User: Fold these one by one.
Assistant:
Number 1:
Amino acid sequence: MARPRFKCEYQANEFASGLVGLLYIEENGYGPESSADLMHQYGSPVDKLD
């Protein structure tokens, strides 16, 4: 069973992904075709963690 911390992080990531998708639609008038579209538009947090 996953530890509660990881479950909370997973839920937070899922929530944030939905918000970023909605923001993309609001700004562009259509949804992203892939996660690459979102990374190109907004960047990737992974780069900032290194």
Number 2:
Amino acid sequence: MNKVYQSAAALVLGLVGLTGCNYEPHAVGETKPAPVAEMKQAFRDLWVGHIFWVRHVVANHAANN
């Protein structure tokens, strides 16, 4: 049970650390909206995939599989 608490604590600390990094730097000069939108969508897809696999690993770890 202690491992579960340690894993949960690490997950919470990681998420709290990531919320502090949520800012958008100001770009210098003009940006093209199409490539920026494509890049944002690509990063969003990567992030969603990462969240899916992390949840999958945590669920399997919790079920001792």
Number 3:
Amino acid sequence: MPQLNDSAGPASTSAEAQPAGVVRVLLVDDEALMRAGLRLILDGAENISVVGEAGNGQEAVGVAGRVHPDVVLMDIRMPGTDGIQGCRGVRALPDPPQVLMLTAFDTDAFILDALEAGAIGFLLKDTPPRNLVRAVQDAAVGTSSVSPSVLSHLISVAAAQGRRPVQQEATEGEGAALRGAAGDATGAQAAPGRPAGPDPLDALSDREREIADAVARGLTNTEIAEEMFLSITTVKTHVARVFTKLDVTNRVQVAIMVLQHGRR
């Protein structure tokens, strides 16, 4: 059983060298019990090692600068320096680690702010252990992980406010969550926050607009190919062109833009 480093306090670090290929993780939460639980899960996983802990965002920046983690798993709400400020600080470090945010509520008002601060993903604190482990491993290679209910809320809020989140990379697996989110956010199309001016979707061809609408409905590339009788390669090409023309980097951003400006 992994040993808990509770004697070292919340800002503890590990200077031990790790084998190549091991994902180094820094835990940041003001609750020692939460950190202990996360440590048990992650230290028990293959190719993951918890190399440090911190009790708030300010401590996280200092510890991260010393232990050089690959991933920082950070609570979004903490007394003192919260997770948003901590995320900005960590991401400003040289060769910064990826930041995965933890939240107790899928309707947390700070989720979009943390995403804009540079977080690569969001997980609920009740995420199953196997999903937590996979999210940490994905974050280490730059792949986004977002709990489905968090993603649904994120799209609804962003569409209503006319804001576009910035994510490093997103996976096609978000499609299932986008299905529910697209329905939830439909009412946001006429919200006061809807952007004025030219419709950026006008830059798309008719086929690309159909692809964008399908992405906003949460369809994967495979499902789009089946629905439109296209090859997977053709769909991927169209999706890439949509990303380029809309100046976005992932499917969540495409969905938000479609919801903001209305589907055909």
Number 4:
Amino acid sequence: MDGTTHPGFPHNDTDAESDAPERSDDPNSASAPFGSEHSDSTSLAWAAPDAAGRHGEVALRIRGLRKRFGDKEAVRDIDLDVPAGSFFGLVGPNGAGKTTTLSMATALLRPDSGVVTIYEVDVWKDTLAAKRLIGVLADGVKLFDRLTGLQLVTYYGLLCGLERPVVVERTGDLLALLGLDPADRTLVVDYSAGMTKKIALACALVRAPRLLVLDEPFESVDPVSAANIRDILTGFVASGGTVIVSSHSMDLVERMCDRVAVIADGRVLASGTLEEVRAGSSLEERFVELVGGRTHQEGPAWLRIS
């Protein structure tokens, strides 16, 4: 930031701290941890979408999506429907086109052809309206890492057009939920890889989106934090939100998601409910069957002890 000031931005930790509300254990209080009949540390009452998904409503619809990088066709005529209120897993090997597909679906990368709609809003015809509906954790995107964690989430909330008191409350809630409150005044550049992933998730959640798109959200995250994040996301879906998560972990997707799509070589090989895609096998077994490439080898002789 090099000392440049921005309207409404907390210019230092003291400014950000002065906005922090006193916490309350009263579930009816505006500063209570998300309020509810009981105080649940993984409940996101304020993050519940304004309108829960109607029966049959599609949160994300992709038709004929294509993207080429030079001679490589990374995404080939992908069609995909993500029902509103679902926890949707996107799995595939490295280089399958998962990140490219999600980047195009969230207006981070323009496709060569195809149509993407988010709750019937065309992503490339009305990009701003579409972006207001989503929160995104994109793989490899750089953060403003010369800000503290508190400043970063606050800044994202203000950029989303939220009122400062709302941003202050939500920022405090998210930092506490993700176990980042002890490091809220530490520069993000000094965060570990797992902490950086969690602060990026906080930025994606602060606007209380209807659709949350997460590219490898559990990469470099410790098991306790991963369990906490799973609970947060499950609560978000239960409240009417929709989550799309890409992951290499078949076990994780199998435990979290109710719907899944398998992508390889830029194409959708299977998509549907978890039970439909598994077809009586484990997700990992079905994935290997669909994608192929597994070899049964003992390895070179010098690797065998006896």
